[in-house]
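This protein record is not my work; I was only asked to verify it. The record follows directly below this note.
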Amino acid sequence: MIYQQKETHLKSPLSFWQNFEHEERVLFYNPLENELIIGAKRLKTFKTGESYIHFPYVFSTRTFFPTLKDQKWSGLGNETIAFEFYFVEKNGKQILYYAQDDFDIQEREFTPQTHVYKMLADDYEDWQELFYNVKQEIASGKVKKVVISREITIECETTVSIESMVKNLLEKNPSSFAFAYFKDGKTFLGATPEILVQKKQEEIMSYALAGTISRGDKEHDEEQKTALLNDPKNCHEHQIVKDYIAKVMTSFCDDVSVGATTILTLKNIHHLQTIIKAKPKENSSLTDWVFRLHPTPALGGYPVQGALDIIERCEKHERGLYAAPIGMMNEQGDGIFVAGIRSALIDGNRVYAYAGCGIVKDSECEEEYLETSNKVKTIVESL
């Protein structure tokens, strides 16, 4: 399969998305490369270990847990896919790739929609129950950290405009990885700051991203950053994640480099962030590293298996693709997987928004609940 390519000039990249209204589609924006990739119309599903040669991009997902129970997640995840058409915008240049027949992309205008919506239920009592159950597990010494999450159901008066939400996600979160995946009438989308793992030739990189403080007015930003860098609870939570990633990498690599801990500033919050790089001893694929690292303690907890057992037992909702690996790779297998956080599943006029936070021994119930509310603003503001 050899893709043809041609330069194109669309006023809005979302015109490409709109041209395939009923087809399976994916959108992936990488802020590190300033690259937007949109794929449309499934062409091929790859088997484990199968080569990607001659496919300019492949899209890959894994669900948070290996199996799914909730019907609303049915058919989503655990696949690596090539699409028949790709639109790529990078450095001001737009390229259309097509595998078989050329396709004349029609420029389409759409009026951005502001959704009228309501939250369907107050979930604070459920949160309290989940929080204190987890705190008991931590107090017993079984685990040091558990990442718990909320599923917030939002009902809109009209069918959700995916194009409007994607446009807002891209514009409001320029330093995050924006993504949208449409299949069988449902869309999973979001804007995540978290890289699970990246592969560039012989180098592997992962982000430790844990520890959070809300942003207030801009004049106090520096004070908040300093407070976060010196907060014992957040630094402890961050250290758990950093140590775990470095330990996993050390098992497979000779040269592991742990960077300095810095602040990642997003629209509504600051995070502690550390970049960890390594060079593997033996040849391994990016998907190998996804299986080795997912979930990090930033997404599940620590020790990992003990935390996952608690999440599976105590959380009442299905995580599906929330906090799960979502990635885009090139034909050499290089690419990036991000964690599907600051995300939502859209089905008709319903939005299932997800937000989580890490619970350690010094965590406070109301404080952590407010943190998740700040995180879910990424989705709410995109409506």
About this structure: DSSP finds nine helices and 20 strands in the chain. The first helix runs from residue 14 to 18.
